[in-house]
Design a protein that fits this description.
The structure is a single chain. The chain is mainly alpha-helical and 483 residues long. The protein folds into 2 domains: 1-47; 49-275 and 383-482, no CATH class. It is built from 20 helices and 2 strands. Strands 1-2 form a two-stranded antiparallel sheet. Helix 3 runs parallel beside helix 8 (161-189) and helix 18 packs antiparallel against helix 19 (423-442).
């Protein structure tokens, strides 16, 4: 019997085995055990086709739900079923390394990778000096296996352009299920307002801000697929149709930070497309900074007088971003940022320990900066910043090493976009850059890299840019040798 037929018979037999066991377990009234045979099937895929296993993880990430949604009293939280599979990929990665299946050296020594090493090493060091060592070790392990799966493994596999597209589609298609689910809940409730937007995407997303951030990252990718002439007309039309649906979901997220991040990315897109000179951009930035600095008092005064609360109207909702008087979300965010800075002032070098901010910031609140949604219990989120959070938790090097990852990724991305001659790669690289920029801007006001949904895209986009850079460099070297 041909090997191909044998392989598919094994797959079919395994699938039937899983389905039969799921049915038997369900009839016995223990539905949670249905996950066990499914996990066994996933492990089979992992050992037979590791690339397909990564795609399976990507497919499950948007559909994953937190463990605490089933068991409220647990101290440990995981995204099910995606995060256990990420841990499996993490372990298999090291098994493959011992069998001499190594990652491309150019990826390992790439400047972005080096910045990631420094960031991970520093997180590990500050975990050992943490004020809550167990919390910090959990944080480090979570970050470590996300980076291994979604950056290093992804970078190796995404040296193939076709796999990069599969990686993106594996995430986008199930995300559409979440968007349809969210819109259907809006419809069922008869509410398309801001209040409903806070909870209708649950349990897949914890709140509307993380939901909006993910949709903002996906929009440039779908726009790129829509205009890429290398794709068939059918795929371009399909991509555009999904782009419209994602945009509707994005608007209904009512996430001001996500809206602003996409507006900023659109500005960068205009600068790139019209090839505005860097010196011109620098002059404009300096001029804006000068105006802001010279009129700082007046700006703060006007912000203090702004009483526009968040609204269903786009113009009013964006205007409410500068309301630091009675918009509790904005005032509480300022409270968290000030706490992070005070914590940094007390422990500027090693910080309080990765993941500890939410447990330690309460004493650093000042009464006049607190709001009705402030808490002393450490149960309502983190520092609301990808930059200030590490500053308080891992000190100055924690924040600077993360900023270094951002800067080096942007340098890599724009270098790839400028040098690559293949149009499809050019469009893909710009789409990835703009998607990452939406998160970099959003990261000023929120932080979600402790979740699988944000990590899969953040590290995945970064990995793809590095993979394109490495592959294109090798292509040029091989062309020179042949000449």
């Amino acid at each position: 019997m041909p090997r191909v037929i044998t392989k598919y018979l094994v797959y079919l037999g395994s699938l039937l085995f899983v389905l039969v066991h799921c049915l038997l377990i369900y009839r016995e009234g223990i539905p949670y055990l249905m996950l066990l045979p499914l996990l066994l099937l996933a492990l089979l895929v992992a050992f037979v086709r590791f690339d397909n296993f990564l795609l399976l993880i990507m497919f499950l990430v948007p559909l994953s739900v937190p463990l605490i949604a089933f068991f409220r009293d647990l101290d440990v939280n995981l995204a099910l079923p995606s995060e256990p599979l990420v841990i499996v990929a993490f372990l298999l990665f090291f098994i493959k390394i011992t069998k001499a299946e190594r990652i491309d050296r150019k990826i390992l020594i790439h400047p972005v990778s080096i910045a990631i090493y420094i960031n991970l090493i520093w997180i590990f060091i500050t975990s050992l000096t943490s004020t809550m060592i167990l919390v910090s070790i959990k944080f480090f392990l979570s970050r470590f296996w996300f980076v291994i799966a979604f950056y290093f493994i992804t970078a190796e596999l995404c040296k193939s352009y076709s796999f990069s597209k599969k990686y993106l589609w594996a995430y986008i298609l199930p995300l559409m299920v979440v968007i349809f689910y969210t819109i259907s809940r809006h419809t069922a409730l008869g509410l398309f307002n801001q209040d409903a937007s806070h909870y209708v995407m649950g349990p897949f997303f914890s709140d509307h801000t993380s939901y909006g951030a993910i949709l903002a990252m996906v929009i440039p990718v779908l726009a790129g697929f829509s205009i890429d002439n290398g794709n068939s007309k059918g795929l371009r039309f399909f991509s555009f149709a999904l782009l419209v649906i994602v945009t509707i979901g994005f608007i209904l997220s009512y996430s001001r930070a996500a809206w602003l991040s996409l507006i900023f990315a659109s500005g960068i897109f205009i600068i790139v497309i019209f090839r505005v000179r860097l010196w011109a951009v620098a002059l404009i930035a300096i001029f804006i900074f000068y105006l802001a600095f010279s009129n700082f008092t007046e700006i703060v005064f006007r912000m203090g007088r702004n009483t526009q609360d968040s609204s269903a109207r786009l113009s009013e909702h964006i205007q409410s971003v500068s309301n630091i008087t009675n918009d509790y979300s904005n005032v509480e965010r300022l409270n968290r940022w000030n706490c992070a800075l005070r914590m940094f002032n007390e422990k500027p070098f090693l910080g309080w320990g990765p993941g500890t901010y939410m447990f330690k910031y309460a004493p650093y609140q000042i009464s006049y900066q607190k709001t009705p949604i402030s808490t002393e219990e450490g149960d309502r989120g983190n520092a609301h910043s990808e930059y200030l959070g590490p500053l308080s938790e891992s000190g100055i090097l924690g924040s600077l090493s993360f900023i270094a990852i951002v800067i080096l990724t942007l340098i890599t991305g724009f270098r790839v976009y400028r040098r690559v001659k293949i149009k499809q790669l050019k469009i893909l690289s710009l789409s990835l850059i703009l998607g990452l920029i939406t998160y970099y801007v959003h990261g000023i006001m929120n932080n979600f890299l402790d979740t699988d949904k944000a990590s899969a895209l953040f590290w995945g986009f970064t990995a793809m840019l590095v993979a394109i850079d490495v592959s294109y460099t090798k292509m040029k070297e091989s062309n020179k040798k042949s000449d």
